[in-house]
Amino acid sequence: MAETPLEGRGERRALAAVLALEVLFFAFCSERFATLANAFEVVRATAELGLVALAMQLVMKSGGIDLSLGALMGLAAVTLGASHAAGAPLALAVPLALAVGALGGALNGALVVAGVPPFLATLAGLALFRGLAEGWTGGYAVYSGFPAGFLALGQDYWFGFLPPQAVLFALVSLAAWLALQRAPFGRRLEALGFAPGAARHAGIGVARLRLGVYVLAGLGAALAGVLYVAHLGQAKADAGSGWELAAITVAVLGGTSLDGGKGRVESTLLALACIGVLQNGLLVTGSPSELATVLLGVLLLFTVAVRRTVLAGGPSATASSALDMRNSQLAVLVAAILVGALVIAASNAWLVRRLTAGGVAASGAAPTAQRIEVALMPKNKSDPYFASCKQGAEEAARELGVQLLWEGPNDTDAARQNEVVEAWITRGVDVIGVSVENAASISTVLRKARAQGIRVLTWDADAEPDARDFFVNQATAEGIGFGLADEAGRVLGGKGAFAIVTATLTAANQNAWIEHIKTRLATKWPGLSIAALRPSDGLRDKALTETKAILRAHPEVKLVMVIAAAAVPGAAEAVKQERSDAKVIGLSVPSLCRSYVHEGIITSILLWNTLDLGYLTVTAAEAVARGRLAAGATTFQAGRLGALAVEGDNVILGVPFRFDASNIDQFEF
Amino acid sequence: MRVRRISREAALALALGLLALVLLARAPGFFAAGNLANLALDNLPLVVAASGMTLVILVGEIDVSIGAQFALAGVLVGLLVKLGLPLWLAAPLVLAAGTLLGALQGLLVARGVPAIVVTLASLAILRGALRWSTGGRWIAELPPGFQWFGLGQARGQLLATALVVLLVGATAAGLRWLRAGRALYAVGCDAEAARLLGIASARVKLAALALMGFFAAAAGMLSAVRYPAIEIEAGTGLELAAIACVVLGGASIHGGRGTLFGTLLGTLLFGALGTALVFLGVDAAYERAIQGAVILAALLPEVVAHLRGARELARG
Predict the structure, then answer these.
(1) A288 burial class (0-12, 13-18, 19+ CB within 10 angstroms)?
(2) What is the pTM assigned to this prediction?
């Protein structure tokens, strides 16, 4: 049953209907949504994922799967960055990066041709390619300083409105469509996907075709990696982490089957548009991004249900009519869920609108007293550290009558940060405050926000100075690194070995702290040495396993220094289970560590008051918007925090605070 | 077919043996009884999750939502215990909830919705809902009866291990000897043929996914009771790890082939590697590259056999 042009029409209709519904709905909720500029922002935000999704669709259509595409993207990015840094011109570095992608794809393909299941072959590839990128850069090397002409590819607008990557993506999509839907290659691929044995007997060079598919997919991923570098202005080993699953989601939503043979380029593009518009629209209407995740899940079920019912009259002759009926019931059920979710989103957006309107009415005629909208972005929304910052931010927002938006990535993801800021610019918020993951990439969009009259702050981690008005500075990297090193020296008595458990090897903040820790050791604590440096991915479970291994493998280690909030309790639990003679210090939130501090396992944790940090950021944002805080100020009256020093364009929260058994119970966060 | 399966398990054993030799030469401390016990203990949740995944993969389906199910179970049990329910009452409730969730997914899969779609959807929905409802805050200040079932560390660890051995042993025995266990293989090999033989294929698939829900909830709770507080982002990436263990253990991703023993070997290799690299003092930056290389090495005998087979086919 080869695919006819008519087949898959049901799902395309379903997707088109969903897309139309989304656009109508968001246009109704926000007058700023349905503009050409915003449409291009959606394309910009999804172009790289789109390339990976097209590559994934190609492989899935051939009956395989490629889990290594995200990792190949990272390897290609690092290849580009490293060769450019080594002095190669871009005319050489870019082809080199693409060649690495093709080569990685060839390795996958060769393994698959040699009889290894694609899932397993590319899983090995995933580990291998990401590992090569990490090993090559040590995880921390960041390559930037690319020429402006190259960066323009990812950041500029042609004719003032057209993002270059939109053009590139359109061209690649067109080529893919021609190859898959209009050329013999597509027919052969379909045959291979449906029935490899039959394809071989029909005279198709199955092995060569398979190899070619994986090489092309690798090439696509590498191209996405190059675009990603141009978009973010930096190359790092973590580019594309976890994108394989996102790409599979797009392909599957577009009707591509894991069993092979099915999948059309235009369906994948429609699916990409559905997801991109959903995410952008929810941001522009100020709804939480978790809703986007939930709705994406509902969307997946919905389109499948529609496909099965709308198409039921057609080829599903083997299914009994009773089953069809149940399928239609299923569709009704899923549709009901979708409508319910949309109603929730709508009421949310509606409520926000009414509240804003009410605020204006209540505060009387003075137009300057309008309710100010402050949009704050953490580096990672699901990190307990930022969850406690949010508490403080909400407190200040209540006090000042400020409308607070809290949105950001759910893992540290620089590209996602850019996407959120773009949506906030479209929304037209009054102040944007960002805890910056990657200064080089976000500064471009922050400058764009400033150019449109939005006031910009950074907090927790800074962008480039000219991209923001003020930086709410809780403590410098140097202050943290030196403080931790001194604390280690104090606990160990100036002599001995300790281990560091970090977040990921590519985490920018942590790597800066580690640099300063090493500097401090060299100058002040020559008797101390670092026995091991291990990643925890910011997860408690992994921190537990890693710390146990460290304690077993290095009996000389008497102290574990943990520099990721969620990892500290994991390491403490490991010490508790393992050894009574070791201690834990680090950076974390008091509430996560309280019991271990009282048990004497954690000697101390170093941190500023995160509640105050959130509080101060919102207070400063409001002051900037109202003109109470302007360039040249030397002090700032910050509500319950009193007068704080302003040094240049830094609002200083104070020095890091040391929590130990004597004072930790005074802190609720 | 039989020859190939043995060769995968043998290849795994070979890779494990090589790793053991390297460790014996370079870091004999790895084999201290305490370390091995630790290794087993830390991998208990992964063993349980991978066992459940074996059942799902055997019937030719897949479940990529187990990481989210795992986190949900931890949060649920934490909330119930905080409400004042004793753990021995809360745990069965959470297991029931997990099974129900799995059964719901199974229902859709049995109706013919592709498992990848169903489980991707529920992965997104569950993670999103968890993050939304908790705002990223952990469930803390659990009653003292929670950590290690309130038995203290040594006895609690023993109980956890015993529970897992019991669960996995029963599953292995069921797969081998029970009619229902064999039905999983039959459905995985050819669902239509199994149906003609009188096996309710759809129901078997439903059961496999429901069991996966049960196993994921059990794994989530086993992981949660090791701490005095519950992490929201627990189980991130667990789905890929579990699938890797199963497939590395020789199960076919298309169903019908695989054993729990193979899965255990796969889990052993996957779980031991990270700790082994710490003992060998390998720079963490190279860890993933080595992981990839080891998986490739474990696959090598199969590639060689396949190529030799192809050559003979061409000759004959």
Answers:
(1) buried
(2) 0.86
